[in-house]
Amino acid sequence: MKKQQKKRIRSLGSILLVLAMAFGLTACGGGEKTSPVVENGGEKEAGDTTGKTDEPGTAGADGNFNEEGYPIVNEAVTVRIMGLKHPIQGEWKDLKFFQKMEEMTGISLEFDTPALDVFEEKKSLAITGDTYPDVFFGGMLNTNQQVEWGMTEGILIPLNDLIDKYAPNVQAMFEANPGVKASVTAPDGNIYALPQINAAPIAYTAPVWYNGSWLKALNVTEDQLPKDLDAFYDLLVRFRKEDPNGNGAEDEIPLSLVSGDILGSETTECFILPAFGINGSKIYVDDNGVVKYGAMEENYKEYLKYLKKLYDEKLLDNDFATADSVSVTAQAKDNQVGLTIAAIPQNMWDVDTEQAKEYPIIRVLSSEYTGGKPVCTYPNSPIQQGTFAITDKCQCPEAMMRWVDYLYSEEGSLYIHYGDEGDFWEFADSGLRKHIEHEGMANEEYRGGKITPDCGTPCPKWVRPETEGSWEDPFQAIRIATTDEQIVPYMKEVFPQTYFSESDADRITVIKTDLDKYMKETVAGFVVGNLDIDAQWDEFQATLKQMNVEELISMYQTSYDNWAAANK
Asked: Is 514 exposed, middle or buried (0-12, 13-18, 19+ CB in 10 A)?
C-alpha cells in the first residue's frame, strides 16, 4: 500500500479513536479499538469487525501509572499484543508467564498469535490494513521492518526516551554488552525495537565434537588434538586409514557436514576458513574495519584447494551435498563419523552423559596464513533482533516499557525462560538448579505448553552466562568450560548486526538472490572437481564482479561505518 493511502487509513483510525474516547471507553489500547478483537481458537485475533473490550482506565491518567514498584498501574488497563506462536506452546492466555505478569503489573493482554508459517504474512497484513497491535512481543521485527515501519511510517515509536526514563535493566544490558546498543539503533539514531540477548558463548558458538572413541582407539589425547591445518589433515587421514571404529572396513567418514552446503557448514566456515585468514566466504569485516567479500580474497583459492584435497581423499564426506541432520545422526550412531557439529555429543553418537565427557570439542586452528595465530568465528549473533516494539496505537508506552524492562533483570530473564521455582525447576542439594519431571510430558513440552512463550518464540530478555551455567547437568558444565577455554579467546564476529536504508536493503536483496545461488553452486563445483580451481579462478572472480559484488561491499561498508560511529 502506498504511504498516502496508509496515512488516510490511519487518520480514519484516529477519528474513530477520538469518538470512542468521547463515549468514555478509554483504555491503554484505546477503548473500542480501531481493530477490535474476538476469540479465535483460544486466542484473540486482531482485525475482526465484531466484539469490543471494556477496559477501565488509561495508564498515566489521574496518577494511574507508577514510575516505580508494582503494580505498574493502579487501575487495570488492557494492551493488545501480537507475536509468533510456536506449535509447542499452549494458548498464550493460559501460560503462567502472562498470568503472573498481569497479576504483578495490573496490565492485561489481548493476544493475536499467528503460527510460524503465516506469521510474516499476518504481520504485514496487520500493518498495511491498520489492524496492527499496541505492542509486538516475540514479533521478529527484522532491521528492514524496523526502518520501514519505524523511521519511514512512524508506526513503531522511538524507545530512546522511554528507556532512559523507565528501563534501568535495559540500560544495564547495553552497558554490560558493548556493541548491542549500536546494533539495535536505526540510522536516524532511534531504537524502534528491543532485542533478546544471550551473553553465554555456548548459545552462539559452533559446537563441533570429535568422536572420543576414535581418539581413544588411536591413542590421541586431548593435549594432542590438532591446532593447525596440517595437524588437522593428518588426524583426518588417521581416522580414514587406521580403522578407529574397529570393524575392519574403511568405512569411516572423518569429517561430516550436517548442512548439505559447504557455505552453510559451521565446521568449514567457522573453523577451517578462518585459518586461511578469511572470516567468511561472503561479507565480513576485518580487524581494521574494512568490509570484504571472502571469496574475492586470494587465500580463498587455497582454502578451496584444501577442501578439495579432503574431498578427493574421502576425508570430507563425499555425500555432503545431500547430507542432513537425520542422515548424519544415523551414521554417527553407527560409529562412522569422526567429527561433526551437534549441541552435545549425545545427540549424535550413541553415548550417555558419562561417556560424552570423553568427546572433546574441536580446537581452534592456525596456519601460516594467520601468522600462527588461532582464529575462529561464531556463526550466530548473541543478539536476536526485534523481539519487542511499541506502536503508535499504544496509549500507555511508559507502562509497557516498565513491563518489558522486568524481563531484562536477572530475575525476570530467568522467569520468562524457566518459570517459577517449584514448577519447571528446583534447587538441588548442590545449590544448582535441576528440572522437575512432569509425568507424560517432556521438559520442553511442559515449558512451552504450560509456562512460557520463550520456548520456540524469541522473546525480550537478557540471559547472563551464569544463568546458562546454573544447572545441575554434568555435561553442561563441561561444555561451558571447554567453550570458554578453547573457543572464546580466539573467536571473531563475521559482521555485526547493522541497519540499511530502505533503498539499500532492497538493492541488497536483488544482488544476493543471484549471487548466493551462484556461490553455492560454484564453491561446491570447485570442491568436488566439476570446476578447475586454477583454470577457472579468474572467471570466478570476474563473474562475482559482474554480479555487483563490489556494490554489495560498498553498501555494507556504509552500514558498518554507521554502526561503528554509533558504537563509540
From this structure: exposed
Q: How many CB atoms lie within 10 A of CB 36?
A: 19
Cell numbers of 371, please? 601468522
**Residue 27: all three cell numbers together:** 483504555
Tens-place pLDDT, residues 389-399: 999 999 999 99
- For the chain, give me the number of helices (H) and strands (E)? 21, 17
Is residue 359 within 8 Å of 349, Cβ to Cβ? Answer: yes
Residue 73, classed as helix, strand or coil, is: strand
CA–CA distance from 329 to each of 41, 169, 247, 335, 337 (Å)?
37, 41, 19, 10, 9
Q: Which of 404, 390, 460, 459 lies closest to 190, judged by CA?
A: 390
Residues of the chain below pLDDT 70: 1-62
Q: What is the pLDDT of residues 426-449, one digit of tens each?
A: 999 988 898 899 988 888 899 999
- Burial grade of 119 (CB within 10 A; 0-12, 13-18, 19 or more): buried
What is residue 374's DSSP assignment? -
Q: Is the peptide bond before 71 cis (omega within 30 degrees of 0)?
A: yes
Q: Which residues sit opposite 255 in a β-bridge?
A: 316, 339
Q: What angle do CA 144, 146, 149 make, to 5 degrees?
A: 105
DSSP character at residue 224: G
**CB under 8 Å to 440, separation ≥6 — which residues?**
none
User: Residue 80 has which C-alpha cell?
Assistant: 493488545
Q: What single DSSP character describes residue 321? A: G
Predicted local distance difference test score (pLDDT) of residue 442: 86
